[in-house]
Amino acid sequence: MCLYGHLILQAIWLECTQEQNEIIFVPSGWYHQVQNLEDTISINHNWFNAYNLSWVWDLLLRDYNEAKEYIEDLRDICDDFEGLCQRNLAANTGMNFNDFFTFVSRFTLLNVVQLFQLLRDSKNPMRSSSPIAQHLALNLLSIRKIALKMKCVVIPSGNCKFFVDLRETLDDPEFLKLCMGFSRMYGMIHKLEKWSCDMKKSLMVDLEGYSYLISTVEDLIKLIDYAAGKLSDNYSEENILLSKFDDA
After folding, report:
1. What is the model's pTM?
2. Rounded mean pLDDT of the chain?
3. Residue 11 phi/psi, 5° resolution?
4. DSSP state letters, 63-118
5. CA distances (Å), origin 156, targets 83, 85, 220
6. Is position 106 within any domain?
7. For residue 220, is it within any domain?
8. Domains contained in the chain, number
9. Residue 161: alpha-carbon gap to chain centroid
10. Is residue 230 within 8 Å of 206, Cβ to Cβ?
11. 84-99, pLDDT tens digit by residue?
């Protein structure tokens, strides 16, 4: 208390009463306290996005190491020790390395395609530095940083095999539904009227000649760098989006 007392005194406190059927969004890293005024049923969901993606990976890696250490005595008698670690990780944390890789790969594809579509539909080159374009680029930069951290983790062969087919992903109705929601959400956040994105058309045009398979962390990094390179080919060196990749 003595060490951080002055910071607490400077903090801005927000207090409210949550009524029935209301939702409260608590941003990452915000300290919060709940006092139930009467008998209450509370439903909570943890979430992650580009901002706290690094925290999710750190948690996943820590839980993985703990799960592996907990069953270390089974290594010599287990035919697939790594597969067992990944199954335990998924059971305890809600996802394993495969699940996380699939998520970030799809999220990368989602941002890459929408970024290209946004820039292609814009008649004004300065649109490439618009808030929504910067937002998409920062998402990709965040994923790239996590992918570089993932490269440093040595995973023995076993059930942890990464594989994402970009073309199959775009044919997945659930992914296309996610794309539509993503477009609407970013359009509302940045007050962009009538912004829609033809995902499949964008992919075929902008990623033409590029491999559609992502099977390693290196492939994921290459996809993000390829997107940055495409931007470099079509826009000036002063483009704020490219500078974000250069600073990484």
Report:
1. 0.75
2. 77
3. -70, 150
4. HHHHHHHHTGGGGGG-TTHHHHHHHHHHHHHS--HHHHHHHHHHHHHHHHHHHHHH
5. 10, 11, 20
6. yes
7. yes
8. 1
9. 19
10. yes
11. 898 999 998 889 998 9
